[in-house]
Amino acid sequence: MRNLVLRSTLVALILTAVCAVLGFAQVANQPFTAPEYYATSFQLWSINAQSPNTYIFQGRSLCSSNGQNVAFFDFATNAPVWIADANTAQSEVKTPSAIILTAGSCGVTIAPSNNHYNYQLRSGTAGLQETINAVKASGGIPATIIIDRNWWSLANNTPGTSGAAILAAAVGGPGAAIEDITTIPATYYVWTGTAYSSSAAYWQNTAPTITAGAAAGSSPTVSNAASSTALSGIANVTTGTATTTGSLFVETWPTNAGTVGSFQNAGTCTVASTGANSFTTFTSATSFTGSHRVLTITVTATPAVSTAYQFSYNCQ
After folding, report:
1. What pTM value is reported for the model?
2. Which end of the chain, N or C, is less packed with Cβ atoms under 10 Å?
3. CA angle 215, 216, 220 (to 5 degrees)
4. Do 61 and 105 meet the contact criterion of CB atoms below 8 Å apart?
């Protein structure tokens, strides 16, 4: 009986260890620290004054912070800074004209309107611009930035500004979408190229536009099947004469500049040759031009003249 208990205990310990290892491996394999990021998590930093009216600090690490396990530098020339003076009447928000980061110091070049003898530097956007900058720096895959009631409270209590003004002035990019969860339903903001714009129609499943490449030859016929969407579809190509190698056709998705519902990054598309006339010697590549996604199909063998080819695409 005692041996049975010991064996059972040993098995339980082994299973616990295996599960712990598997759990660690799963976490370790995650390339990003969170599926979405809260702006308030990036406003927790503050730097105490070292000298009056001086905004360069001794100690390189003083200007480095962490939000949701994302390391970031506190300052940027697009991120307003709150100079929180001990005399609150003297507090103000200014945007740096330059940032400083040397082997032994860090800080900003900034032009305050008031003298500041005893102060702290804090986020002038309640963490929003810092979050946007961190998300944009983490790669091309988009992430959602959450603004909640805590963010609105902090933003509306920032001197000389408001949450609405901070949101309107935010400098974004296609990789950083904003979700305001204080409204029902939530309000989404997408980067139009010049500002964040809200829209209930954040995602529209609009199919791309197909155009023939040089490899399709002279006077080819190209079209997407009527059932095609932004995520998947069928491209039909009937070659003309004088076919060659190179680009066979290009799929272009709607621009995201001023248009909601388009892809915000290059992403990936899987392409397969289907139909009666399969084509095996081709490659596919997706790219993002800064405003829209493009899928290019390139052939390394000359297509047969006046032959109909069919390709399926599945994108994410």
Report:
1. 0.63
2. N
3. 160
4. no
